[in-house]
Amino acid sequence: MKPEEILKKYQLKITNARIKVLELFQNHNFALSQPFLEKNIELIDRVTLYRTLNTFEEIGLIHKVIDDSFTLKYALCSEVCLHQNNHKHEHIHFQCVKCNQTTCLDVKIPLIKLPEGYQIEEYHFSMKGICKNCVI
Fold first, then answer.
1. SS3 of residue 127 by DSSP
2. Which residue among 9, 59, 71, 105 is least crowded, i.e. fewest CB within 10 A of its CB?
3. Burial of 56 (0-12, 13-18, 19+ CB in 10 A)
């Protein structure tokens, strides 16, 4: 789907900044950091990029990805994120030790039963290894 169509679907104003950010996400199948986005998108200031990422995350277009790079990354949401009124990110993130890219895998995290008195609000599951592009 074209960026303009996606923005229209989510009832967002169509701006050049939003189109450029979406295009970059669509052209990469791995999680992107804000510094990567800043470096690869011309003529967008840091504040506009931050606001765009924040808006996209709030509406469920992207989600945060946690890995051990100590840099917050974002990934474009897909069917993996269960979009109907129950937007979740209960899937595995895989970080490649060779190319250092983190991807979302269409593998759900099994239900974990906690001891009485604990309540889950959010959880992340990540794995490290060698991705399919680096295995030779």
1. strand
2. 9
3. buried
pLDDT tens for the chain, 136 residues long, are 899 999 999 999 999 999 999 999 999 989 999 999 999 998 889 999 999 999 999 988 999 888 787 788 999 987 555 444 555 667 888 999 999 899 988 887 788 889 999 988 777 788 899 999 998 7
Under 8 Å between Cβ of 37 and 27: no
Shortest CA distance to 112 belongs to which of 90, 79, 84? 90
* Phi and psi torsions of 34, nearest 5°: -60, -40
Judge contact between 41 and 20, C-beta under 8 A: yes
**Are 60 and 87 a contacting pair, CB within 8 Å?**
yes
